[in-house]
Design brief:
By secondary structure, the protein is mainly beta. It contains one helix and seven strands; from the N terminus they run E-E-E-E-E-H-E-E. Strands 2-1-7-6 form a four-stranded antiparallel sheet, with no helix packed on it. A three-stranded antiparallel sheet has the order 3-4-5. A hairpin with a 2-residue loop joins strand 4 and strand 5.
């Protein structure tokens, strides 16, 4: 192909993936013992109290997603991580050996 001229045109279109609805999402509660629960995010807001080696982690969950509202650990890093609402997002509390992640149902 030396000495020849070639042209290439590529067209692509990015299509945004629709956000999962509350009915399609679950909160997976995992500890060092494995998956403990899968809770649908659809429905009214509710509070979940999870006990770990460092004490209690309090989680609010509902249609908008899940967030840690209080933790017994010193730094409360998990609380400052904010709201998780889309599949693939997670919250972690290392002192309580807890991972909360959003997945599709």
């Amino acid at each position: 192909l030396q000495g020849s001229h070639a042209q290439l045109a590529v067209t692509c279109r990015l299509v945004p993936r629709p956000s999962a609805t509350a009915a399609d999402r679950v909160l997976v509660v995992e500890t060092d013992g494995g998956v403990q629960d899968r809770i649908a995010l659809a429905g009214a807001d509710r509070r979940l109290e999870l006990r770990g080696p460092a004490g209690l982690t309090s989680v609010m969950l509902g249609e908008n997603g899940a967030r840690v509202v209080s933790a017994s650990c010193r730094h409360e890093t998990c609380r400052r991580q904010g709201l998780v609402s889309q599949p693939g997002q997670l919250l972690a509390c290392a002192p309580n050996r807890l991972v909360l992640r959003v997945e599709t149902a």
